[in-house]
Design goal:
The chain is of the alpha/beta class. The protein has 10 helices and 12 strands.
Length: about 290
């Protein structure tokens, strides 16, 4: 699989990475349908065997479940794999989550992730989302302290505005930005890709397959009744999805491959995060990346 440098000084990564949000599926969190842990471990290992050299996870994904599965999948195989996680998302009574990007919260969150992952450090840590009550300079400074202590190698921002990216970058270089990007979705702040290119920051696209809606065999009616995608606004965009399917057919591609090719062809994009739940899905990664 092709590899690209992430930002000005980050790691060289495969153009597709292994996403773990779906394998964190759970009714106490966000339900993507039933997920067997052993199948999830097999999926991650198959993705690595297929040429992916990084995994994207977060404590938010199943409130630690995904990170623990990553640890199991990497037993005996660590030196050739980059592990990316996130900080700042906390459970809260009466809602799914809240953001707490205070320095002490970031430190505690990362240390908990390190324990779940069974590692001494994490390669790349993103601040998961915006905390309007904590200045970005304080949050970003906390990550720089963790880098200085050897607990983190690189740091980035996820779902932040272009203004916040600039402010953080003025404190210390931002290695990467992580943003939603697909044929059906764009970053909340459309200026982020341009700012990333201007500042030499890598861009990681999440949900490039629109949480499964841009896949050839996706059947909304076959999902379990409490699968969150049944209530997604994407479910109302059938005509648009059909148009992309027709474009893919005209180009001689599967819809999956067509969607990934579009994302990887965007000028600012370094790589895309593709969620995998089975070994068969993971084995398709090289074909999705070859265009």
């Amino acid at each position: 699989m092709e590899r690209r440098r992430l930002g000005a000084g980050g790691p060289e990564i495969s153009v597709l990475g292994i996403g773990t949000a779906p394998i964190g599926s759970g009714r106490e969190w966000v339900y993507w349908g039933a997920q067997d842990d052993t199948a999830a471990v097999d999926a991650i290992r198959a993705g690595l065997d297929a040429g992916a050299n990084w995994i994207d996870t977060a404590p938010f994904y199943g409130w630690g479940r995904a990170e623990e599965i990553v640890r199991r999948a990497l037993e005996g195989r660590r030196d050739d794999v980059f592990v990316f996680t996130k900080v700042g998302t906390m459970p809260v009574e009466g809602a799914l989550s809240k953001m707490d990007n205070r320095p002490e919260a970031i430190r505690a969150d990362l240390e908990a992730s390190i324990r779940r992952l069974g590692r001494d450090d994490v390669d790349l840590v993103h601040i998961h989302d915006i905390d309007p009550e904590t200045p970005i300079e304080e949050s970003w400074g906390a990550l720089q302290d963790l880098i200085a202590e050897g607990k983190v190698r690189w740091a980035g921002l996820s779902n932040h505005t272009a203004e916040l990216v600039r402010r953080a970058h003025a404190v210390a270089p931002v290695t990467s930005c992580q943003e939603q990007l697909s044929l059906l979705a764009r970053p909340d702040d459309p200026a982020v890709p341009d700012v990333a290119r201007e500042l030499g920051i890598g861009l990681l696209a999440w949900a490039p397959l629109a949480s499964g809606f841009l896949t050839d065999d996706f059947d909304l009616g076959a999902l379990e009744e409490d699968d969150w995608r049944r209530r997604s606004r994407l479910a109302e965009r059938g005509d648009e999805i059909a148009g992309h399917r027709a474009d893919a057919t005209a180009a001689g591609r599967t819809l999956r491959r067509h969607a990934i090719a579009w994302v990887l062809g965007q000028p600012a994009v370094t790589a895309a995060i593709v969620g995998v739940r089975t070994a068969a899905e993971a084995a398709e990664l090289p074909a999705l990346a070859s265009d």
